[in-house]
Automatic annotation (TrEMBL):
Native species: Alteribacter lacisalsi
Residues covered by the Aminoacyl-transfer RNA synthetases class-II family profile domain: 130-429
Subcellular location: Cytoplasm
EC nos: 6.1.1.22
Gene Ontology MF terms in the entry: asparagine-tRNA ligase activity; ATP binding; catalytic activity, acting on a protein; nucleic acid binding; transferase activity
Transmembrane segments: none
CDD domains associated with the record: AsnRS_cyto_like_N, AsxRS_core
Family the entry assigns: Belongs to the class-II aminoacyl-tRNA synthetase family.
Catalysed conversion reaction: tRNA(Asn) + L-asparagine + ATP = L-asparaginyl-tRNA(Asn) + AMP + diphosphate + H(+)
GO biological process: asparaginyl-tRNA aminoacylation
Keywords tagged on the record: Aminoacyl-tRNA synthetase, ATP-binding, Cytoplasm, Ligase, Nucleotide-binding, Protein biosynthesis
Name of this chain's protein: Asparagine--tRNA ligase
Length: 429
């Protein structure tokens, strides 16, 4: 019977065949221990010389790392194995021998591993991170489907910037200028006016020359947008969504978190509601901690980390100064110098994972913002139409997938959280 490592627990005592690669091996004279992987998981295959044909045992000892093979054997329970099962091998069939595999069990430098990212993905740690990423994506679709959201795909090629910045990748769109999208948000606002509650999930691009452990040039964003919803209601959606994703990973990726040596007790605390502090309170907190920061300045990584250390859950920082936020954010009706917005800061130094706000729904105020930010009436006329024709209170947010994966997995650098990272100095492989 053919099966996978992930399904092998259903076949205890049975003889099965799996297609696999040899991740590693060791032998002690009359027994060979094969560390096998098939993409769904890892398992140890035990080959006993006295129990198999001579050529099978010879193959087990001679096979090279990352050679591919079909393995047949009997499934048995083993409490010492990470998955709880082992395979007593009865037969091996070599598919393809791998020669001089470059990533050996010894230590390798980061640049070497990044040059071989197409192979590094096969390692146990990278495999675990990709499986957690997949679970976050699965749980995201599940959450928004349950909450009545419609998936909408905004364009990747755009004629203007979502946030009026210059950190865009420029290209020619026949005889026009075009840019790779840095956010689908403005288009999602249009979709929300048609469909009520919507979300997008796609690649975004930022041409920032940043080398920090939190930054990628190309990354994926989940961007919900909600009609008839104010800032406070949006915060509830955000905390419920993040809680749902974290609990789904805890439920479905225990083996992966164990492989990553992740302290799951920290993740178990991530349940809504989350604490909230205002920007004003955050500035005062930072000053008391000895940080040099003035009201009106944006927070950097050290500031976010210092704030997050006060809590064992993600924390919302709300009501930032209007001057340091995007043109479309709605001012607080009781205080025009701050906007109805929030950043969600992850614990353990992982920084901002969500940025969100209530959007300006007043046509005259948005016209004023266009003038203040020198935005082209021609490029943004369609966005103004959303206020002209049936404007409503609406809010939305964006969650960065890779930062969220990094936080949940406990990785040191965001480059490990995406299959093929695009960094300032890296476009290969």
């Amino acid at each position: 019977m053919k099966t996978t490592i992930a399904q092998i627990g259903k076949h205890v005592g049975e003889t099965v065949t799996i297609g696999a690669w040899l991740a590693n091996k060791r032998s002690s004279g009359k027994i060979a221990f094969l560390q096998l992987r098939d993409g769904t998981g890892f398992i140890q295959g035990v080959v006993v010389k006295a129990e198999v044909a001579e050529d099978i045992f010879a193959l087990a000892k001679e096979m090279t790392q990352e050679s591919s093979l079909f393995v047949t054997g009997t499934v048995r329970e083993d409490d010492r194995a990470p998955s709880g099962y082992e395979l007593t091998v009865t037969s091996l069939e070599l598919i393809s021998e791998a020669k001089d595999y470059p990533i050996t069990p010894k230590e390798h430098g980061t640049e070497f591993l990044m040059d071989h990212r197409h192979l590094w993905l096969r390692s146990k740690r990278q495999h675990a991170i990709m499986r957690v990423r997949n679970e976050i994506i699965r749980a995201t679709y599940e959450f928004f489907h349950k909450e009545g959201f419609v998936k909408v795909d905004p364009p990747i090629l755009t004629g203007s910037s979502a946030e009026g910045t210059t950190n865009l990748f420029h290209t020619k769109y026949f005889d026009e200028d075009a840019y790779l999208s840095q956010s689908g948000q403005l288009y999602m606002e249009a979709a929300a006016m048609a469909l009520g509650k919507v979300f997008s999930f796609g690649p975004t691009f930022r041409a920032e020359k940043s080398k920090t452990r939190r930054h990628l040039i190309e990354f994926w964003m989940i961007e919900p947008e909600m009609a008839f919803m104010d800032h406070e209601e949006s915060l509830e959606v955000q905390e419920n969504y993040v809680s749902y994703v974290v609990q789904s990973v805890l439920e479905n990726c225990r083996l992966e978190l164990k492989a990553l040596d992740r302290d799951v007790s920290r993740l178990e605390k991530v349940q809504a509601p989350f604490p909230r502090i205002t920007y004003d309170e955050a500035v005062e907190l930072l000053k008391k901690e000895g940080h040099e920061i003035q009201w009106g300045e944006d927070f950097g990584a050290p500031h976010e980390t210092a704030i997050a250390e006060k809590y064992d859950k993600p924390v919302f920082i709300t009501h930032y100064p209007a001057e340091i936020k995007a043109f479309y954010m709605k001012p607080d009706p009781e205080r025009s110098d701050v906007v109805l917005c929030a950043d969600l800061i992850a614990p353990e130094g992982y920084g901002e994972i969500i940025g969100g706000s209530q959007r300006i729904d007043d046509e005259e105020l948005l016209k004023q913002r266009y003038e203040e930010h020198n935005l082209s009436d021609d490029a943004y006329k369609w966005y103004m139409d959303l206020r002209t024709y049936g404007t409503v209170p609406h809010s939305g947010f964006g969650l960065g997938l890779e930062r969220t994966v990094g936080w949940i997995c406990g990785t040191e650098h965001v480059r490990e959280t995406i299959p093929f990272p695009r960094l300032l100095n890296r476009l290969y492989p």
